[in-house]
Design a protein that fits this description.
76 residues; 3-stranded parallel sheet; elongated; Inosine-uridine preferring nucleoside hydrolase
Length: 76
């Protein structure tokens, strides 16, 4: 019997401490197949969130072509 494929997921993060840990664990988990990440502004602006996300994914060993998307719109 072979290994079961991981559950495909896309993570929506603001990559503070909690989301950084979640990214690390998700990328390294055989139970998950991380297909991408979406970045949103949280306790900081969108640009630092994207940079933090890319750094964490690199440290976690995620593929370099893993899609990372970001968008910000002002609340109306």
């Amino acid at each position: 019997m072979g290994l079961q494929p991981g559950r495909p997921v896309i993570l929506d993060v603001d990559t503070g401490v909690d989301d950084a840990l979640a990214l690390l664990l998700a990328v390294r988990s055989p139970a998950l197949d991380v297909r991408g990440a979406t970045c949103v502004a949280g306790n900081t602006g969108l640009e630092p969130v994207v940079q933090n996300t890319l750094r964490v994914l690199d440290v976690a060993g995620a593929p370099h072509d893993l899609p990372v998307a970001a968008r910000w719109t002002a609340a109306t």
